[in-house]
User: What shape does this take?
Amino acid sequence: MTRAFYIGRFQPYHNGHQYVLEKIAGTADAIVIGVGSAQLSHEKENPFTAGERILMITESLKDIRVPLYVIPIEDIKRNALWVAHVRSMVPPFDIIYSSNPLVMRLFSEEGIPVRSPAMYARELHSGTEIRRRILKGEQWENLVPAPVSEIISEIGGVERIRQIARNDCDVTESSGGHSL
Ligand code: ATP
Ligand code: MG
Assistant: This one.
């Protein structure tokens, strides 16, 4: 029985994550997914809540053949203790899949086997690039699984990203501001 662990912020969940998780599902007996920086939302770099991200992941992996556990994990600002914090929150796992250098380092220092999956067209499939495209009004829907673009539409995610990126001085009376 191999339980694999995968962690990310998933701001948002995209086709690169989906590609890796479908591969992992071919070898592991169960997958544990940690949704990192779970306490953050409504920020330019972290627009979506943990609950919204959990929905994106579970809807996109509805047909996966292995049991899936999706667990929110809040930040603790102590890297040296972070692996213990993560392990205290999720089901036991045997191996972690990550390509994030800090995550790889912290888990391998604790003696946990780390596998680093190949990147899936990384220049396009990165949360940073997708958030940039959403903000600029460029095409992004093709970079995420269909349920993710539906969820982002349902929660008004595009407007949220654009609104929180504005400066105070961008608010005019015609965009809902009041003259005081
Ligand atoms: P951001 O740009 O906001 O950091 P991200 O695309 O790196 O977003 P994360 O949630 O930070 O996504 O990453 C979760 C995991 O997914 C990490 O291990 C990361 O290396 C991996 N990952 C990200 N993009 C890809 C990709 N295109 N192909 C394969 N793995 C990826
Ligand atoms: Mg990243």
Summary: The first helix runs from residue 15 to 25. The longest strand covers residues 3-8. The two ends are 64 Å apart (CA to CA). The beta strands are 3-8, 30-35, 68-72, 95-97, 114-115.
